[in-house]
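Hey all, quick one. A colleague (J.T.) asked me to put the alpha-D-galactopyranose job into the tracker so the inputs and the structure tokens live in one place instead of scattered across chat threads. No bug as far as I know, just bookkeeping. Sequence used:
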Amino acid sequence: MNPKTPPLGWNTWNTFGEKINEQLILQSVDKFVELGLKDAGYEYVVIDDCWSMRERDPKTNEIVPDPVKFPRGMKFVADYVHRKGLKFGMYSCAGTRTCADYPGSYDHEFLDARTFARWGVDFLKYDYCDMPFSGQAEFYYRRMGQALRTCGRDILFSACNWGSEDVWRWIRTTGAGMYRSTGDIFDAFESTKSIAVSQMPKFDTSAPYCFNDMDMLTVGMYKKGNVAHGNAATQTFDEYKVQFGAWCVWGSPLMLGCDIRSMDKETLALVTNKELLKINQDPLALQPYMPETCWPNKEEPRVAARLLEGKDLALMFVNFGENDAWGRFHLERVGLPYQSGMKLKMRDVFTKKISYSGRDTVPYHIPAHTCQVYRCTPVNA
Ligand code: GLA
């Protein structure tokens, strides 16, 4: 059954790339529970690319876990994850080879789905490298979709063709529960910004049972790891707040990508911020929108709004630009003109402070590369 709210978890790729093994997974799973990530709602532990041998077993044709990295096999890892009350995710690819050149599932979809089911896999991230024919994503994803539906185990299908080939038009026909709507993230603010901005015209393509996936978070990586390349790489804590805030308000799945074994307190507090997670997991899962007219000037401060369960709405003030921004946000942009007689009671999800808007406007000051997120309730002015 596909989820009604965005899936939450942790994935190995952003920090570890090919440097994965059983010990790392087991330690991370222990830490996952110890740090309270499970209690906060995180559920999936996902092993990305590079877990297998370079070739399939010549006799059975099955993909074989690398015995050096995973000496006790994947079922052992899955059982461990399940004993901790979590769910286990793995990775394959729609093409003949994965993006890091391990065996892909092309023409072995049904065999692989049955193998994953036997191991106790609950989630499959499915990539899009080394395709026999280009421009056919829909057909390849439909094959694995059917293979998963018929494999005898409930496995969440997480498609990853990077938003190409108008994926939003057909992805729901494959049974996927989430799908990458962007290219790969890297640990720099320009990546956070370009992914967040790229979703604005796609807000209406994300919905319950199949969410736009903005890629694994780099929050808390601080330049340690696989996707922390380039001189510009790494972000400040404020920039990570922008990333996590946008992923929450935009309604993306939240897959942590840092090394959770050494996550600092500040990062932990951010990714377990109950009020932000509650916005991300709002039961209505409605799309956000950009109520200001300044769009599409990319350097302008932006206000994002999203209706939440009951009377509430989320407002995010975010400054992707290089200069501090001062201004006034007009509440008529969220359907509350002066004549409504209402103002907003605004609860800052970071500071927990409550403030009130005016009857028609909210003044704001947003320093460069920062954000503020409020849970707001319309009240009589
Ligand atoms: C692609 C995906 C990444 C990651 C790598 C693994 O680039 O988009 O998220 O899974 O492949 O090789």
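Adding what we noticed when we looked at it: The chain has two domains: 8-280, 302-380. The pocket of alpha-D-galactopyranose is lined by residues 13, 48-49, 98-100, 127, 160, 162, 184 (CB under 6 Å).
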